[in-house]
Each structure stands twice: as C-alpha cells, then as structure tokens.
Fold Major facilitator superfamily (MFS) profile domain-containing protein.
Amino acid sequence: MDYNGKAIAEHHEGAVPTTEQTHVNLNSNVSGKIANPLAGIPKAELLRQVERFAEEQNMTDIAPLLQKGALVAQNPPAFEEIAELEEFEREALRNETLHKWRQPRALYYTIVMCSLGAAVQGWDQTGSNGANLSFPKEFGIAAPVGSPNHDRDNWIVGLVNAAPYIASAFCGCWLSDPLNFYFGRRGTIFFSAIFCLLSVIGCAFTQNWVELFICRLLLGIGMGSKASTVPIFAAENSPAAIRGGLVMSWQMWTAFGIFLGFCANLALYSVGPLAWRLELGSAFLPALPLAIGVYFCPESPRWYMKKNRYREAFKSLCRLRNTELQAARDLYYIHVQLIEEQAIIGKSNYVTRFIQLFTIPRVRRATLASFTVMIAQQMCGINIIAFYSSTIFVEAGASSKSALLASWGFGLVNFLFAIPAIRTIDSFGRRSLLLFTFPQMAWTLLAAGLCFLIPGSSAAHLGLVALFIFLFAAFYSPGEGPVPFTYSAEVFPLSHREVGMSWAVSTCLFWAAVLSLTFPRMLSAFGTTGSFIFYAGLNVCAFCLIFCFVPETKQRTLEELDYVFAVPTGKHVHYQFTKALPYFIRRWVFFDKSAQLEPLYHFDATLATNQDKAREEYELESRTTGKY
C-alpha cells in the first residue's frame, strides 16, 4: 500500500522547472545553500504554471488568488512592489513581520487543544509519583531492605512505572503512522484521548499489580500515538516565524500537566488508603475535553495535500491564516517544495519508509538529530525526578507529606520556567538553548547529589537538596524541555513525518521506560548521590552529541528545512570544530569583540532574509521607545 501523497508525484513532471541557479542537491547540499524553488522563474511562466496547477486541482475559481500568492512566495520581501495586491493584503503581509503574534482564533484554538493533549501526558506521568508511596504496600511489593524479596519488588515497582513507556515505545508510537494515514491528525488525537481517558480510570480500580501493569500498558498506547501526533499537528498548522513558540506549547503544558499531577497528589494525600487510586485516576480530567474538542480544530493542510485534497487544504489554511492571500501563498509554496522533496524520496510504503529513515541521506540526518535531542531528554535526568521525586525527597529525610510538597514545588518551577521559551525558542534558536542549558543542568544535578552527603537530615539538608533540584528544573524547562518534541516535529519531510516522529518519540519513551525501570534498583545499588552524579555525567555526554549532530531550525518553513538537512553531517561537524568553537572561545573566553563567525548556511535573498532584518530592527526600535 502506498502511504505517500500521490498528488505530489503526479504533479512532479513539468510542474516547476527549477533553474540551475536555484537547484540544490537535497541529499548533499555541500554549499549549505537554502534556495527558493520559485526563484528565477519569469513572471509569465510562473503565472502559467499556477494556472495549470489550479486546473489540475479544480480550483480555477481562485486561480487569480493563487497567482498572487505565488508572486508573493517567489520573492517575499518584495511584496510591496507587486501591483496585483490590494492594500489590505499588503498590510497583512507587513504584520507578519511587525506583529507576528496576531493570528486567527482557529490557530490559537488548535494550540489550546494541543496543549490539552500535552497536559494529559504530564498528568499521566506524575500520577504514579505520589502513588509510589502507597500502592507497593497495598499490593505486597514493598519488601524492606535485607528481605529476600527486596530486589524483586524494586524491579516490579519499576516495571509498573515503566509500563506506559514500554507500550508507547513498542506499540503506541508506531501506530501513529497508519492512524494518521487513515484518520488524519485529529482522528489520531481522538483515538489517543480515548485510551488515555479509559485506561487511567481502569488504573483506579485495579486489585493487584498485574492488573495495574496491564492498564498502564493500555495508557502507553494512547500516550505514544498522541505524543507522536500532537507536535506534528501544531507544527504543520503554524506559520514559520512563530512555529517554535507555538509547538513548544507541548512541553510547557506537559510541564503544567506534571504540576497539576503534583497538585492532585498533594490534595489527595490525606484521603487515606484510596489516595493512590485517585491520584492515578485523576488524569482523566484533561483527556475528556481533548476528546470532545479536537474535531473543532482545522485539519492539517499538509495532511490534506498529502491526500491530494487541495481544496480542503486551502479551506483549512484560510482558517489558520489572516487572509486568503496568505493561505494561497502558503498552499502553492508548500506544493512546490513538496515536489522538490519528492524528487529524492520517491514512492514508499510503511515498511520502506522506516528503512528510508536510515538510507536516504537527507532523512538520515533528521533521524540522527531527532534521536540525539530525544535521548538527551532522558540522559539529562529530568524524569528520575518527575517519576521519583517523592521517593528522592524521602531519601533526603523528608516526611511523606513534605516530599509531596517539595515535588509540588518542582512541578511549579518546571512549568513557570518553560514560559520564557515561547519567545526565546524562535529568537535564540533550538540549538543555542540546548548548548546553554546542558552545562547548567550538569552542575546543578551534581550539586544536588553531593548535598545528600551532608550528615543528618536537618531542614538545611533538605532545603539544599530541594534548591539544586529546583535550579535543575529551572535550566531544563526553557532548553531541553521544549526543544526535543518541537525539533522532531519539524525536521522530517512530509512523506516521512509520521514515521520519523514515531521513531523520535519511541526513542524518548523507550529510554524513559529504561530509566523508570532501573532507577529504583540504581538507588539501591549506587545510593542517591551516585545516581545523581551518574546523570550529571550523562548531561556532559549529551552536550557533546548536540554540539556535533543537531543543526539549527529556527524561523525556516518546514519545507526549507530540506536544504538544512541536505548539508552532509561531516561538513556540519567540521564547521562546528573549525569555525563555531574557535569563534566562541575568542568571543566569550577572550572577549575579542572583533571575532566574526562565518555562517554555515547561505540563504537566498528571496527567502525572507530582509524580513528577518526588518523584524529585528522593528523590535529594537520598539524596545527603545517602550511600545513593543
């Protein structure tokens, strides 16, 4: 069965003759050039091509609008010179630079629904955090230290906690590709929400650890397919200039869901024997409105285009953009970029697409980069705290209630410090945030671990442990927190986006399962200090991997990223060590202000470079005058 968008392949021949000037090899972009496939086409020829496109798609009634959109897409900074545009259309295009957050309600509603999906994810993660203090005793798997069953029970508790991530990594994530093919982004999210709704209610009624394990496996099916789809849905519906800020809502609201889970754990602590059941079952609350509300969102226009349903794609874009001109521009520009993609991808099915993640050079580089940022999220150690913070604070000498209160503080810090990333992820960039925050996470985790060596269990002892754990969360939240899911949703071509995101999320959740399964045993074997030092070292390793293998993606359309990932990995690594690293040392170690960094990528002037400059100048002037 052919899962690829047949329309793209069918329209490839003769659709857009790419000029020699703009052609770039999307498997080996040695020059680092990022081109506009419409550049260099004479106006009359471009209009004829758009007219043919409109006829093929039965959209001749809006052919003049599509032609205007193509003229804008051909040279975005020069829209003021296009005589065919109305003044209100020019004003809308100016506002893309000057007021980029002025977007339609439908776009923000979509992001709200995606945020609900993220909140479900976070709440599901932390329900077990408080329950870990109770359910092992009730199910007879809490043998004390020295007991013959102590090690066995540690592994069972870890297995129950890891169950959703095991199911996600081996089933839920990989279901997202066929689910998206048949039911679209919205249908897949609905499917996921139902699993997340019913399974957590089932968890609350289990009578032994085996039943709890099975219910949490079912939860993992929903979590995996949701985590693989929601960031894609947000990324495909968002304009390039603010895509990072909108897609990172996944992490921010996952952090909020984690915080709400900690709130529920703290509020339900005094209920008694039923507390852990209510803590696990309470995660149904955000899943219910998600299941109801997702079908009021516009479907992804790129999904419609992949299914050769261009008319519906245009209607969806009209809901997601401020004017029909912007919708027509994006429709045609995405179309011609998809033709460029198809030239290197060809037709494929589910199995061959998975194989192509590792065989097609452009796709393989995206696979490596997404793998790096996803495994780094587990290497950094955030989830040993998200899953086991209550246990960790008890180890530091806190009472059960104080441990839940400290965990609540961790959840609050995790959420609050994710908010700045809405702005910084599209200004500083994904790569820069990662390279800044990983060293900070390493030393804070190391300091937290060493604080466990302080004799006694005084308030100061507990306070220092909590302080460094909170600092760790504060550095994690604007960096490694929002970047992995945002980044992985961006980097794959449309033809491989679902299976690529499945690969990325399964990587993340598989290692979350490994972490959840092994941490109780690691605590027993290494102690809290040894465990924290181990993860501090992994932060350093993750920093090195990111430095070598993760390109920047900020403020480029999803299709323009084909050119970024066409740059050979060897060239990227060589640039980082021979250009970027010496520049950093000269500029920030020796404070040499004359140091200049030669760019790796060379953007065509027609790719909104001038818009970026205009935006920077406007924001600088606005901050100076106080009218920003």
User: Anything to note?
Assistant: Strands lie at 33-34, 602-603. Residues 1-22, 606-628 have pLDDT under 50 and may be disordered. Residues 191 and 212 are 21 Å apart (CA to CA). Residues 105-549 form a domain with the Growth Hormone; Chain: A; fold (CATH 1.20.1250.20).
